[in-house]
Amino acid sequence: MKTTKLIFFVMMTVVSLAVNARTEDVQTFRTWAPTPPKGWNSWDCYYSSVNEELVLQNAKYMKEHLLEYGWEYVVIDIRWYANHPSLGGGWYNQTNNPDCQLDEYGRYVPSPIRFPSAVKNGKNEGFKALADSIHNMGLKFGIHIMRGVPKYILNDSTRYKLKGAEDTSWSYVYKKKDPECTWLKDNLTVSNNSYGQLYYNSIIELYASWGVDFIKVDDMSRPYYNGEIEMLRRAIDRCGRPIVLSLSPGKTAYDQIDHLHQHANQWRMMDDLWDRWDDVKAVFREADYWSNYHLQGCYADCDMLPLGQISMTVKDEGYANADAGRKTRLTKNEQYTLMTLWGICHSPLFFGGELTNNDAFTDSLLTNKDYLRMHAFGENARQVSNEGGKIVWTSEDPDNGDRWLALFYTEPGNGWILDQQALYASETVAYTTDGHKVDVEVELPEGTTELALIVDDAGDGLNYDHADWIAPKFIMKDGSEMPITGKDIKYSYTKSYYNIINENKNVTGSDKMSVVGKKYDNGFSMDANAMILLNVPTGAVGFKGIGALDDTGVCQPNSTASVKFYVFNFDPRTVANTAVCGESVSCDLTQFGYDADDTITLYDVWSGEHYKTMHPGNLNVFLYPHSVRLFRITSAK
After folding, report:
1. How crowded is residue 183: how many other Cβ atoms within 10 Å of its Cβ?
2. Torsion of CA 199, 205, 209, 214, to 10 degrees
């Protein structure tokens, strides 16, 4: 090990111990993650198809190249218990016998086909051998689980016993026989009672016996299942092993912050994030909100890092074809932007690509010592300003008083609309979104005369993006509601596959609008990108409606439907070259308490070079769209 790397590792360890000393009076589970966790997760690169060989090759790479920089978790994502989990890409095999493996207590165990070390002397002993191999590398081991109890116990309820109450009927454990998760129907909701607690106790005891250090539990935080989160927290706290708890998916409800601080180490602030600029840009809003509630040991999670080689599928004959995937679509500037925002707001960092395919640039993002110090130990992280796509964040080094300053320029629009000026902007609505829809209600600024309803492709192309504005209405000053019809349309615009906007029927014109099988009579259908500009009647003070993915798109085989819904009080379209030119992003450094006669030095964190020495005042930096400059500021005083 090189001397500089050894010094950095020792420094991180010493500071971590100091952090632990300061957290002795907090809940124990928070001390298990004194700094935001960092590691590798298999989802972005292999979806649900990863196997033992691939996990180990990524673990070995982490040991050899990243462990000394604090990267330590190796996490196997969804459906490790299925012999045939995938139909390719992010599509789950849910109907063609996925062959999910359970032990005698109705608990999932690893697929012996994909994880052969699980089987010893003819018995499935779980991830113990694999976890031991990873621990022997000096790393930590994690798994993904779905909320609930496997529905497969219903196939033979006498075969499986509830551990600790073997004579108890499973009907006391689950709430109903139909899975509540809308996107993966492997599990049943657990009843919030003593039997439900016994089940959660039993699976956590099993995972602890394997040597699990990290659990990502899915379908737990959107919707937010308080009862099951509390049962899982109790089960972990009693198991005798420190296991970091991560809740997924997002968007996690803002009003659960106190509950989150009491029960979870990390939670998702966003739905699944991919290598799309729109996805990255959307994080700024959420990171700003959650930064107000940062607490050591509890972290708002921006989601995984979709960098390097991603989106692959391991061949499973008869079920899924092999797919070599792709390099991330994010430009180098966009990758710097992503890493800087994730780091300065203390998001957990889980690399999503195949590590062994990393190039020097990708590894440089993961091994920058100054950046990693900011991510782990920066204090008072906050957004300073956000105007017209010019965004400034800062945090402070608690040991020496240095300041990190990040200047971003996202751009004034997303390429065709001025998205940051919307009255309402949804998260990405995709097949994983509950009900495939969002409820929209917007207060109109006084004097509003026109209203634009937008369907945007969410940055991933137009395929399958059939969407509906269902039951749109103006809310009048007297509280009444006025249905919006085609007579209210002032102008419409489409740039899409069908290039059509239909009223009261789906975009193909074949039937009524339909969302998860439910038909709707009133509204407008279109495919992204599209806009309808409405005349606003006198006396209107608000708008309400439903934005939804229509079944004609999202229900097609291998559909990649994903859209965003926007509401504006003006026509938000912009010409294609609006965001091409760069802009100067400025920040008044005197607001941070520097004396006018002080001398400060700015060090560019990503380039590793001295930027300038100056007296405190207005710092101006020219940035191209989607780019960032990250500085460490040192005062001579």
Report:
1. 16
2. 90
